Amino acid sequence: MNGTSTALNEHRPNVRTALVTGANRGLGRAVAAELHRRGFEVVVSARDGAQAREAAAGLGEDVRHIQLDVTDPGSVAAAARALPEVDVLVSNAGIMLDTGADPLTVPPELVERTMAVNLIGSWRVAQAFLPAMIGRGWGRLVFVSSATGSFTAGLFIGCPAYSVSKAALNGLTQMLAAHAEGTGVLVNAVNPGQTRTRMMPSATRTAEESAVAIADAVTLPDDGPTGTFRRGDRLIGW
């Protein structure tokens, strides 16, 4: 659907449109599938447009796709122009490059790359899509976070760049929730737990299982919580 400016849900006017970043595989693809199952108009996005198209085709004929690189301002701006009616944003795109490092040996270049995707990329996409949600008076923004970034649990030093990026993402969640409070837009972070993906192939929890918790945060009621850090229906300390 690259280049289209047609309103996404003009043929299904009562259906909410959900954009999932990093949805060509793993947890993102599972979230897209779960939201599609729950009746959302789903847009699969990925840095590689061909992979986004392939993933969308595998989920259903009515699933859309778009190329979106969260680290590229031009790509994000183009996606926002092409998708004017996004009601739900699941900010899932993320990387973990420093497993096994420690705070004194992790290369700063890896820290920069990690922050560019996990924090700055998520922030950039939120800036592109959240204002329209606020303007329409309804929306859901869900950040896929991690317990490695929880000060309550203790930041995990075994992947320091990833942990710090998720702690910062949790801070962004709180700020955006406060900014959007009372507008009809809910902003929350979800810790899906250790999930078996390319990032963590030895985990026992499937992407499909973890996707349910993320979709549950998307489908919170209008009087539901905002500015929270969640694991299923349980709140986690920041």
UniProtKB/TrEMBL annotation:
Q: Which GO terms describe its molecular function?
A: oxidoreductase activity
Q: Which residues form a coiled coil?
A: none
**Sorted alphabetically, which Pfam families does this protein's record hold?**
adh_short
SUPFAM superfamilies hit by this protein: NAD(P)-binding Rossmann-fold domains (SSF51735)
Going by the UniProt record, its keywords in alphabetical order are: Oxidoreductase
Q: Which family does it belong to?
A: Belongs to the short-chain dehydrogenases/reductases (SDR) family.
PANTHER family per the UniProt record, alphabetical = 5-KETO-D-GLUCONATE 5-REDUCTASE, ALCOHOL DEHYDROGENASE, PUTATIVE (AFU_ORTHOLOGUE AFUA_3G03445)-RELATED
Protein name (database record): Short-chain dehydrogenase
